Amino acid sequence: MLNYKSNKGGGPTVDFEKAILDGYASDGGLYVPEYLPKVTHSDLNKWKSLSYKALAFEVLSLFIDRSIVSAVELRLLLDECYDTFEIKEVIPFHQLETRDETYIMELFYGPTLSFKDVGMSFMVNLVNFFLKRKSEHLSVIVATTGDTGPAAAHFVAGKSNLDAWVLYPKGLITEAQERQMTTLPHANVHPVGVFNCPEGGDDLDVVISQLYADDAFKNKLKLSSVNSLNWGRIMMQTVHYFYGYLRIAKEVGAPVNMAVPSGGFGNLCAGGLARKMGLPIHYLVVANNQNACLNRIFTQGVFSKQPIHETVSSAIDILVPINFWRFLYFNVEGDTAKIKEWMETFERTGQAIFDAETMAEYRKGFLSKSISDEQTLKTIKNVFDEEYYLLDPHGAVAVAAADQLKAQLGGHPMICLATAHPAKFPETLERLLGADQMPRAAMHPSIEEAKVKCQKNYTCHYSHLHTALKETMNTHWDLHHPA
Ligand SMILES: Cc1ncc(COP(=O)(O)O)c(C=O)c1O
């Protein structure tokens, strides 16, 4: 049986169900599988013509023991996930005309219009399935830079065994993103807009960690996470790398590059792990905006925190790419003592420096670029003017990074991950293209509908978030779950 343990080495080894329901490992580390399953070229050849859903079944079966989720149950869970996606194939591709063999992987056809839907739909269904089986209730708490929150809120809405507390930095996400959370009428969804977050979304993670560290509170409310701290999200995100590769590669084994707009490194951690499992991706491109912690890690070997820049690709305005620690575990032969020491050094000093051997190992198969707002906007405008295709600011960061690294990428097919629908960023696009030039692709009916709905949310100042949120969550729990 494939079990899970903390990348920091503390706490017990747990089975898949516990790893998913806990979210965080008990020592504050991130759960990792005890070993990475391997995929052969013969497996990949068999999977080449599978639908996204059928492929997800095969990939997830490598991680989930049948004694925990049977094949029938896994199929049913996956069947329920993608009904609300706008496109039956779940993830379509668009080939750009003005670049050689460059494909946009459109990951934004879920109900909240970002790639988070692809993984979150399954993740929430799975958690709810476990909870129903145990007749238990969980409170999930999620911090968002604009896309995880709507996805978590949408999929938790109306599920009787779950509550979702969704924290977002007020003013640092778009109104369209905010309304995706605040216009849901369901009683188990609690959006909390937080004013004055000096470091953006990262501040919210600090408060969530404090709540987690409070054992009495955590146990009473049964706190868990569906952020990409949760292994389930990473596991699920490996699937779209397999899918992308198998759709675009001319044959199994042929090199394909993938460029990924990155902030917390959840998505790319999944890509890196898919490659380690045996998926022959040539290069993965780490596409950062000006908040370039990942770029410093991949070019200088330094994990360091610097002041935040507010950018047009706001969902990747992330200072601490937490999932890099999870990926690193697989590059140091599972040496949890090393991971613990680096993580603690970073928490204490704001910086961790990796030795040359470690850096050489984790950099294998990665290239990295930090893209300025000017370059992002120029890329959106050029692609729109030249071929009437509208990128969102995050997909544009990926395309810009791929353009800049072209000489090093070896002329192989390139898949750029478009992680959000342009309709989530109307202000930026209107400013760039002009209000009278906005194409249909810049709008979406769900965003338009949300503009004329009532909003329901809590608001709070960051300076007293910890105390205020704890009190609100406690009161809510006592009212709805009397002892
Ligand atoms: C639109 C969009 N693109 C990219 C990312 C970055 O993903 P990750 O944090 O997994 O690197 C996010 C995450 O918040 C996002 O919302």
Description:
There is one protein chain. This protein has a six-stranded mixed sheet with strand order 3-4-14-9-10-13, with helices on both faces. Helix content is 45%, strand content 15%. It is globular and about 65 Å long. It is of the alpha/beta class. The two termini are 37 Å apart. It contains 21 helices and 15 strands. It has a domain at 93-113 and 234-446: 3-Layer(aba) Sandwich (Rossmann fold), CATH 3.40.50.1100. Helix 6 links the parallel strand 5 and strand 6. Helix 5 (116-134) crosses helix 10 (231-248). It has helices at 16-22, 41-47, 52-61, 71-81, 116-134, 148-156, 175-182, 201-213, 215-221, 231-248, 266-277, 293-300, 323-329, 336-349, 356-363, 373-387, 393-404, 406-409, 426-433, 445-450, 465-480; strands at 4-6, 31-33, 93-95, 102-106, 138-143, 162-169, 189-195, 223-224, 256-261, 281-288, 302-304, 351-353, 366-370, 414-418, 458-461. The structure holds pyridoxal-5'-phosphate. Pyridoxal-5'-phosphate binds next to helix 11.
How is this structure best summarized?
This protein has 483 residues and is an alpha/beta fold. It has 21 helices and 15 strands. Helix 3 runs antiparallel to helix 4, helix 3 (52-61) packs across helix 10 (231-248) and helix 11 (266-277) packs parallel to helix 13 (323-329).
Low-confidence stretches: none
Query: Helical proportion?
Result: 40-55%
The span between the termini is: 37 Å
Class from secondary-structure proportions: alpha/beta
The best one-word shape is: globular
* Record field, number of beta strands: 15
CATH architecture label name of the domain at 93-113 and 234-446: 3-Layer(aba) Sandwich
Strand content: 5-15%
C-alpha Rg, in Å? 21 Å
Major sheet strand order: 3-4-14-9-10-13
